[in-house]
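How a chain folds remains the central question behind the approach discussed here. No coordinates are needed to read the tokens, only the vocabulary itself. For completeness, the protein is quoted in full, as a sequence line and a line of structure tokens:
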Amino acid sequence: MSEGAYYRKGLGNREAIDPWLARDYHSRFVEWLRDRGYEASAGDTVIRLAREFGFCYGVERAVEYAYETREKFPDRRVFLTGEIIHNPRVNRRLGEMQVGFLPRDGTPEERFRSVLPEDVVILPAFGVTVSELAELRRLGCILVDTTCGSVLNVWKNVDRYAQDGYTAVIHGKYEHEETRATSSRTGRWPEGRYIVVRDPEETERAARYIESGGDRDAFLASFGEACGPGFDPDADLVRIGLANQTTMLSSESLAIAERLKQAMIRRYGEAALGEHFRAFDTICTATQDRQDAVGALLASGVDLMLVLGGYNSSNTTHLVEIASRRTPTYHIDSASCLVSAEEIVHKPFASAETATARGWLPKGRAVIGITAGASTPNSEIGETLARLFTFRGIDPDALLAEDAE
């Protein structure tokens, strides 16, 4: 079966969908706050917005391409291989636009069984695995690839590692779409291998094995699916190359790279390090900028932090992690989580479930910090700002009207 059309650099109809995007994701309130230097005071309430927040370039591009696809192919079936980004509002909106979601589980052949050559399939910002892309190409459908450029940069490094005989050690979450796509790149090479380390604890386990070996079977059992097919720690931890899921905590990725570097030095000596260890910083700049902006906001002094973003969003979760170390922090996935001035539904850091907190909003003077993950649209942030002011007895529409005068 011949391959269908492949779109990687837009579909040439951006102007046609600009009104859709403005309607769905623009926020006058966010622009108002940005124009005021990211801080607004009313009564005894001060709200500070992080200077880097919300949609990054890669996410914005992915959403734009999805809208362009629907506009360009109004009479065709359009599918996504999974969530376009980790934001419930955006994915729900695409569903309302008759963009279907293909099954998440199963082999590529099972997942894409219903796809026909005349259909259009959108690849999400996280990318897809090598085998998934191969199956879609075999089916001959039209492909719209929104894979983020930062993810593609990681893939290039992982490809190079595998080609040169280095095992890719990926700092990430092995079940995450991006990490699955990244790790699959090693399978393009006969000796390609990978292992995913989630955190410093798992890194320490790998580092000690590098330094002094150990129980091979116990090691493999402890990592489970985070080890790629055919992985043998005795052979595959001799030469390693570091990479990471682009949305991980930057400081943690750097610490992981340093720990594994030191393990190689202890095992083989510093003079031989180049033969055993490679590393490139593949945290995307947008992720880093948002993490740095949260740090700056916390340093300015806030009484609490609100972090907006999907509960399955890795970059958002790390913003929560940073903020939670310094001040009371609430991770919400939409403005509707702010039930009232007394009640909030949120997901505590490191918890698998949401919780309801009461008395979350301070009485009297309060400085409230807000940020949002890279998959959160301005419209969601604006609605949250409006609710906050309302809960503090301030009419948000009146604030905007005063500023316009």
